[in-house]
Amino acid sequence: MITRTSISAVVAVTALLALAGCGSSSEGTEKRELTVFAAASLTDTFTELAEQFEKEHPGVKVTTSFGGSSDLVAQIEDGAPADVFASADTKNMDKLGDLATDPQDFASNTLEIATPPGNPAEIGGFQDLAKAGTKVVVCAAEVPCGSATAEMEKKTGVDIEPVSEEQSVSDVLAKVTSGDADAGLVYVTDVTAAGGTVTGVEFAESDEVVNTYPISALDGADDADLAQEFVDLVRSESGQKVLSDAGFGQP
């Protein structure tokens, strides 16, 4: 005979099992966050890779922060909560010293001239950037693209007098697309990503200065294993394809 007492007991047990099941489900999808600092020239590719990483790691939220490599290094040194750092050159990665646990090269890039659509100033090569009256924008010397520009000037003997020096390639592109400059020096990948908003002008000497990109999990990362898994994704076959499709070269 089924009594009210036995029914109540069954209901109570069922409720407890349901609560236990909810608890297990919650633990299985525990929310975690990974913060990735990356050079501005990696904006499109790392946004795509972050989305891929989230799909492969349910419950993980990847927060990305893009900017000039030197600015990002300064933020990390000041204690910004970053777990992974990807630099547009080895020099800025080296500044972090032991804060970068195991830097590994994952891509390379070269310079290209970006002009407003149609190239109204008729820039034909690197030497044209020194023509009188030409408004040229470059990256500041401490930024990887600025350092590459300075090295290119030394190799070619061309002395550029820019109208402004910016803190990232995205800032240089903004000056070009707004019409404030006749030309800007950025990376090949930036011209590709900009699409029809700029016209790219290749120059023969570009292969003489190649920037190598390193990436590293950072000391003090909230989840060191998770940070390393993101590094591994970037260097994996699928990660390298995303970078290659965007115009990056092999490290």
Automatic annotation (TrEMBL):
One BP annotation, GO: molybdate ion transport
InterPro entries: ModA, ModA/WtpA
Topology relative to the membrane: Lipid-anchor
Keyword Signal: yes
GO CC, any one term: plasma membrane
Residues involved in molybdate binding: 41, 69, 169, 187
A Pfam family hit: SBP_bac_11
Protein name as annotated: Molybdate-binding protein ModA
Signal peptide: 1-20
Domain of life, source organism: Bacteria
Organism: Nocardioides luteus
Molecular-function GO terms, alphabetical: metal ion binding; molybdate ion binding
Keywords noted in UniProt: Cell membrane, Membrane, Metal-binding, Molybdenum, Signal, Transport, Tungsten
Family note: Belongs to the bacterial solute-binding protein ModA family.
Physiological role: Involved in the transport of molybdenum into the cell. Part of the binding-protein-dependent transport system ModABCD.
Subunit structure: The complex is composed of two ATP-binding proteins (ModC), two transmembrane proteins (ModB) and a solute-binding protein (ModA).
KW Transport (keyword) present: yes
Source lineage: Bacteria, Bacillati, Actinomycetota, Actinomycetes, Propionibacteriales
Compartment list: Cell membrane
